[in-house]
Amino acid sequence: MSLAILDFEKSVTDLERKIQELKRLANQQSQASGDAPAGDNLPDDMGEEIARLEDKVSKQLKSLYANLSPWQKAQVARHPDRPHFLAYIDALCEDFQPLSGDRAFHDDQAIIGGLARFRGERVMVIGQEKGHDMATRVKHNFGMARPEGYRKAIRLMALADRFNLPILTFVDTSGAYPGVGAEERGQAEAIARSIEKCLDVSVPIIATVIGEGGSGGAIAIAAANQVLMLEHAIYSVISPEGCASILWRDGSHASDAANALKLTAQDLRGLKVIDEIVAEPLGGAHRDPQAVVKALSDALYAALQAQIGRDGDGLKRERRQKFLDMGRNLGVAA
């Protein structure tokens, strides 16, 4: 797979291109001599060079990803090849049955949800989908939901509560859609109602920030009993660019804003905004989607098993107290 290039990964990308070129030449030599395609049976000198370069790539990636700045983590979280909600649902769940519409206005494709089985457990899954190419990004409005998207989420959470189904939510949005039409149809009210419904249901809610968690558009489906976050995801009250445009009136200060926002998983775990960090493969989720799916599956299952069977009133009370305490603690920390 050809990956989009992040600025700080250019040296690694150059090495990976050399490796691909060497493997291509080895295959050409093998075919010219009448042998089968080279595959792993490379000439000794070429095989040694490729192994040396692959080792160098691994070491550089370890060094880079051990010391990512908040702004670099934001770039990784937004990587176009990073797995999105539908990719996770396809890999994690069986028998997914999407449920459409808010029963009032429209079916918003930025938020998708439905019934599914996760490791044998019946669950309701709800998540924000950004899309993986231009056509799907337009279809899903780049993951930015309108009011009807949040009202659909409310409807599905109420349905899960009625039938005693645990809720798994997946957060990946730069924020709620800020268009005139969305504001006219009550965007702020819809987000507030969605948060209220999260806090009101009597079934377990496990939320995972899989990419970008932006503003009220994220918390609308993330007021959960347990909040997980992928290692290189970000989660903040505003995007770095938006913060820079307000504080410095200059978007070029996005890097400074990212540092100030404390938006990384590591920062948020320290502030007790999230409960667990799920490790990503070396180089980020986009380099090895299967590995991150397995890690997330194990983390979700453990979190879900810890909540299933608990008293509904206790779950609700604990969830509300969790977010009340969060506000008080963050206020003291500030």
Characterise the protein shown here.
The protein is α/β, with parallel strands linked by helices and 334 residues long. It has 2 domains: 8-67, no CATH class; 76-333, 2-enoyl-CoA Hydratase, Chain A, domain 1. Helices cover 51% and strands 15% of the residues. The chain is built from 14 helices and 8 strands. The chain has helices at residues 10-32, 44-66, 70-77, 85-92, 134-139, 147-162, 180-184, 187-200, 215-219, 240-247, 254-261, 265-270, 289-307, 312-333, and strands at 94-98, 111-118, 121-128, 167-173, 205-214, 226-230, 234-236, 276-278. Strands 1, 2, 3, 4, 5, 6, 7 and 8 form an 8-stranded mixed β-sheet that branches. β2 (111-118) and β3 form a beta hairpin. α1 packs antiparallel against α2 (44-66) and α3 (70-77) packs across α11 (254-261). The protein is globular. The termini are far apart. 40% of the residues are buried.
Core attributes:
single chain, 334 residues, alpha/beta, 2-enoyl-CoA Hydratase, Chain A, domain 1, 8 strands
Task: Name the poorly predicted regions.
Answer: none
Helix % is 40-55%
Series of secondary-structure elements, N-terminal to C-terminal: HHHHEEEHHEHHEHEEHHHEHH
Write down the oligomeric state. Answer: single chain
The CATH superfamily of the largest domain is: 2-enoyl-CoA Hydratase, Chain A, domain 1
The profile of the biggest β sheet is: 8 strands, mixed
Number of domains: 2
CATH class label of the largest domain: Alpha Beta
| Arithmetic mean pLDDT | 89
Q: How far apart, in Å, are the first and last alpha carbons?
A: 44 Å
